[in-house]
Amino acid sequence: MNSREIIVNVLGNVFNEKAYSNIVLNKTLNKAEISAKDKAFITEVVYGTVKYRYTIDVILSHYVKKGFKSVEPYVLNVLRSSIYQIRYLSKVPDFAVVNEAVELSKKHSSGKVAKFVNGVLRNYLRNKDEEYVKGNIEDILAFKYSFPRWMVKFFMNDFGKEKCEIILKGLNQVPGVTVRVNNIKKSYEQAYSELSELGYTIEEGEICPEALRIIKGKSIENNPLFKEGCITVQDESAMLVGMVMDLEENMTVIDLCSAPGGKTTHMAEIMNNTGKILAFDIHENKLKLIRDNSERLGINNIEANTLDASEFHEDLEGVAHRVLMDVPCSGLGIIRKKPEIKWNKNKNELKDLVNIQRKILKNGSRYLKKGGILVYSTCTLNKEENEKNINWFLKENPEFKLEKIYVGDLDNLIYHQEGYVTILPNKYMDGFFIAKLKKS
Ligand SMILES: C[S@@+](CC[C@H](N)C(=O)[O-])C[C@H]1O[C@@H](n2cnc3c(N)ncnc32)[C@H](O)[C@@H]1O
Fold it and tell me: What is the pTM of this model?
């Protein structure tokens, strides 16, 4: 299979079978015997086509006169990935993109279909600069940043026009890589100089003292510092969660939704591998990831077990100094890394999540000792799942009070007067929400 065939097959999995792009890509590329350069090209075109699907489909609808249902799904994805390359990539000449698409359609389908593909792409090439969308601001932003209209409207309602555009732009950024230095195994300064010696271009993170940004360098998973457990790949927004928990050595901490363990292991590192972290997740198969990560990092204060956090577990009542609820959410803040979220979510699904998040809040809060701290976090930008859940909880539980979070000044941090923080997405940070509550 050549690169173009791989691209169209992966797109078929993502668009037609709702697969996650990162998982299918990793699986496919690990099996394929192709060069690193081809792997990079496939990755770029797959992520790009998923990300810009809305814009691409608006364009295609001008040239596929009989509607998308008249086109085989495989051929539709040939067209989508070709329009992506023509519109957003400069490295492949337009004529080569068209030729490849025609050949692929001929091989997969027929000469007639190949002729149709040729016609559509050449038509687009003649009209590349046409104004494809006129209309209201939501239509224009949806086309410009390639988001479904409902999502644009949704961000616009919650954040206003200016912030909505910042969010859309941020969610389209190619995510940079940030790692967290494991203080149990190595000092920050040591990790910094060793990574530099290994040829990585790095810089310090924005806020979190253990964060290091990889600007340039080889894949981090094969790096000796990673293998020895001195660093972990983690977004800086996620690192802020551990930072605001006011952790101390020898505490008992409950992490209710913990897999794959990014925040659990961070907390263990901050606690210097002392005390006890009871890490739970509803999915047994994901617990292995926490255990594997702990072993790599030299951590032995984490006990990982299965548990449904939406139910009350009497044996945990009042045992913890700290409770973390990094709840399952709609993930609108991590579209940079999972662009298919643009197409796989709908408004109703967002509502269903609120119910489970409230159950987790209500039950999980009972595991806290008096004077303890509860942190609630999501990687989404939906007020129903964030502020409104916290406000609901406070009304029902007057013994809890919000603590003000302050981690530093950055353009993308919105500190609400109530005390919680919303993080807007940009190149280095996912969209996130964190609230910190103290039990009196
Ligand atoms: C946002 S992820 C957690 C990420 C994790 N805290 C980290 O930093 O690596 C949410 C997790 O909640 C788990 N989950 C979903 N429903 C749950 C429930 N009812 N009880 C416990 N865990 C649940 C999911 O399996 C998923 O691993």
Answer: 0.94
